[in-house]
Write a structure and sequence with these properties.
11 helices; alpha/beta; 9 strands
Amino acid sequence: MNVRRQHIPAVAVAAVTALGLGSLTACSGDSAAAADTGKFDVVASFYPMAFLAERIGGTHVHVTSLTQPGQEPHDLEISARQTAQLQDSDAVLYLKNLQPSVDDAVAQSEVKTKIDAASLTSLEKHGNEVGGHAASHDGSENDELSGLDPHIWLDPVRYAQVAEGVGKAFQKADPKHAADYRKNTAALVKKLDALNTEFKDGLAHTKSKVFITTHAAFGYLAERYGLTEEAINGLDPESEPSAARVKQLETMAKADGVTTVFYETLVSDKTAKTIASDAGLKTDVLDPIEGITSKSRGTDYFSVQEANLKALQSALGEK
C-alpha cells in the first residue's frame, strides 16, 4: 500500500538507542504496567487487530492498541513509549503494509510472537474501481493501483481466516490457555460466518450493484457480494481526486442509478459532499471500522458492520 510513508520519529530511535530498551521501559510507567499484568500481553496495531485479540484471548489477555480511537491508522507514528511497550509484550498482532511505522518497529523488536494478519489470508491489488461492473461508460483505466489492498477485515470471510490464524498463534504462544483460545476462536468464526450470510442474503437482490466511496476500503466486501466499488480516492483516504476522476464518477452515477456517495467517520466529508452536490446525490456513512469513536454507528465490529449493511441496502435499493 503506497500511503504516505511514516517512519519512527528520530527522537524515538534516539531514545531507544541511548537508553537501551530495558532502561527505557523502566522509565515508562504505562509500558511497565502493561508488561506486569500477569496476563498474555498483546500489542495490537489498530482496532480490527485489537478486536480479534480481545475476542480470542478473553480474560487471559491484556490488549493494548498502538492506534487511539479517532486516530487515522494510516498516519500513525510510533512513539518511544510505544516502542518500549512493544518490546515488553508477549505478542504483537499487526497488519503489514498498512502502517509503515508499525512494520519498522516490529521488525526491530525482539517480541517472540509476531503475528502478521496479512499472512493469514489472501490479499489482492485493488484500484479505484473494484468489482464486476467495469462499465463501458466509466472511462477509468483503473491505473491508480497502490499495491496490495490491506482492508481484509471488511470481508467477514477473510477476517474469519485471520481469526483462525490468530487463535492458533495464541495457542502456540500461551499453551496453558490453548483450550480457551480454541473455543473463543470457534465462537468468533461462527459469528463471522453468520455475518457473511447476512451480507450475502441482504445484498443479493438490490436494484443497483454500484456504490461510490471516498476511500477505496471496500474492495474485498464488494467482490465478496457481487458489487462494484467506485472510489473517489485510492487506498490512501486523504489523497485528492483528479478533476477527470470526479467527472467519470458523475457520468457513471447517472448511468448506473447511483443515489449515494459514502464517506467515513475518520476523514473529512468535504470531497464526498462536493461531488454529491454537483451530481444531485445523497451522502451517507460507510464505516471502514478502523477505529470506534462516538461518531461510529455501533460499539464494536459487528454492530458497525450491521450499520454498513443497512446503509448499502438503502443506497442500492430493492428490485
